[in-house]
Design a protein that fits this description.
This protein is mainly alpha-helical and about 475 residues long. Among the domains are: about 230 residues, no CATH class; about 70 residues, no CATH class. α3 runs parallel beside α13 and α7 packs across α12. The protein is globular and about 75 Å long. It starts with a helix and ends with a helix. InterPro entries: LIMR (IPR008075), LMBR1-like_membr_prot (IPR006876). Belongs to the LIMR family. Keywords: Membrane, Signal, Transmembrane, Transmembrane helix.
């Protein structure tokens, strides 16, 4: 079962990476067989790491669903394979492979692509392997030294020669707990932003009702812009002029939900281009406008039922999920303050099929699974909304291998912290199994309480700002 799940996740992850990776290094420019081999090996390591991160993100919903299935079909012959031993083994394997991918495979993939072999030795694939291995060992020594210093500062009683040699049972779980804490802090930043950003993302794929958006008008504007850009590109190609003629009279309007791409839609940037860069810039902009015109043409022909029903239902569903999430966080905060609910630090073994994880039974379990998937979507969308990570957003057929490695590392960190986020916020009462439960900072009352308060406050403020920003700007202007 473990092997089948891993193969399924690996194939899915390979399809995702193949969609985003840039193929010029392997297929077009590189003629060195060693370079191609290095590229492929690094790509395989990234695919495995992404498969592990997807498995870590899906682990909590699968565990909740398995418990409800065993609760309703305790004596069924067809679900005998679904037991506590299987789920416990999944958590332990995910913890092991997460450590392996985060601390060994991804650093090896990056160093392997940057290696050239030691000076004075024969160049080749093995020379690059030796250099990567030695640099990785030196990096591991530095990381373990920093981890020992951090553990000595945090817990002075554990800083002795015995714990220094106790690598597998003390330092790796401690280092992983630090990474998980960093992931939880990142989720605290990107999840509230994802609540807001997801409204714009859904609005791009669904057609707004006629009273909110005039698709016909946007289509004719895009068509006129396409004709104008075609004439300018033909003129620049035929005459060799290094300036835009005629000059734009006004800025091109940005379509709703595309505020992040305003710099790409600004024609003033085209005014500064010269020679071949001007023709290239006009060609890229023409391709974007043509794609937007085709999308608007498809949206024009959508049925009125789909246009007037799907968009309001989707917006109401997003509002309801966000409101339920904030209310559950507030309830968890009050229960922590009163003392009804214990801290999420728990290492006891949980037996599946004994009792439901939710007070509402299967309906509550289904709601927990839905909220967990909603948190996955919002954190993924909000991650690339952050200013220092927006440039790393993967783009179709335009993502370099270095950015693929960085994105796989981010996915590993966030997916490993997702079970902790659900447990801290009180989304689910499912106890963390395996070595995930050996995270001591979950027993700190101040950290857990402060996290709940900050999450509820930031999520509320982001939503209020989203729905009142336009009104406030108009009031201030008047």
């Amino acid at each position: 079962i473990f092997l089948l799940l891993l193969l399924l996740l690996y194939m899915s992850s390979y399809a995702i990476i193949r969609r985003f990776r840039r193929q010029d290094r392997e297929d077009y420019f590189s003629t060195d067989e060693d370079e191609i081999t290095v590229y492929r090996i690094s790509l395989w390591l990234c695919t495995f790491s992404l498969a592990v991160s997807v498995g870590a993100a899906l682990l909590l919903p699968i565990s909740i669903l398995s418990n409800e299935i065993l609760l309703y079909y305790p004596d069924s012959y067809y679900v005998k394979w679904l037991n506590s031993s299987l789920i416990q083994g999944l958590w332990n394997h995910v913890f092991l492979f997460s450590n392996l991918s985060l601390f060994i495979l991804l650093p090896f993939a990056y160093l392997f692509t940057e290696s050239e072999g030691f000076t004075g030795y024969r160049k080749g694939l093995m020379a690059r392997v030796y250099e990567t291995f030695i640099v990785l060992c030196l990096l591991a020594v530095v990381m373990l030294g920093m981890t020992y210093v951090m553990s000595a500062l945090i817990d002075k009683e554990q800083s002795n020669i015995h714990t220094l040699l106790n690598l597998w049972t003390y330092y790796l779980p401690f280092l992983y707990s630090c990474i998980s804490f960093l992931g939880v802090l990142m989720l605290l930043l990107c999840t509230p932003l994802g609540f807001v950003r997801l409204f714009g993302v859904v609005g791009q794929f669904l057609v707004k009702p006629q009273f909110l958006r005039d698709v016909d008008e946007e289509f004719f504007v895009a068509q006129l812009e396409e004709d104008c850009l075609s004439r300018r590109l033909n003129l620049a190609t035929a005459t060799g002029k290094s300036y835009v003629s005629p000059a734009p009279m006004c800025l091109v309007p940005v379509s709703p939900g595309c505020e992040d791409d305003i710099m790409e839609n600004n024609p003033d940037i085209l005014m500064t281009l010269q020679n071949g860069a001007l023709q290239s810039g006009l060609g890229e902009r023409l391709n974007k406008v043509q794609f937007r015109r085709k999308v608007l043409d498809k949206q024009r022909h959508t049925s009125s039922l789909q246009r007037n029903l799907m968009y309001p239902v989707a917006m109401l569903l997003l509002c309801a999920l966000t409101a339920v999430t904030v209310l559950m966080v507030l309830q968890n905060t009050l229960e922590l303050l009163i003392g009804i609910k214990a801290l999420p630090l728990s290492t006891r073994q949980f037996s599946l099929g004994i009792s439901s994880l939710s007070k509402l039974g299967p309906i509550g379990a289904a709601l927990e699974i839905l909220l967990i998937f909603y948190l996955i979507a919002t954190s993924s969308v909000g991650l690339y909304t952050l200013p220092f990570l927006s440039q790393m957003r993967p783009r179709t057929k335009m993502t370099s291998l270095t950015h693929i490695i960085a994105n796989c590392g981010l996915a590993l960190i966030l997916s490993s912290a997702l079970p902790l986020l659900s447990r801290i916020l009180g989304i689910t009462n499912f106890d963390l199994l395996g070595d995930f439960g050996r995270i001591e900072w979950l027993g700190n009352f101040k950290i857990v309480l402060l996290y709940n308060l900050v999450f509820a406050a930031t999520a509320t403020l982001c939503l209020v700002n989203k729905f009142t920003a336009t009104v406030r700007r108009e009031l201030y202007a008047r």
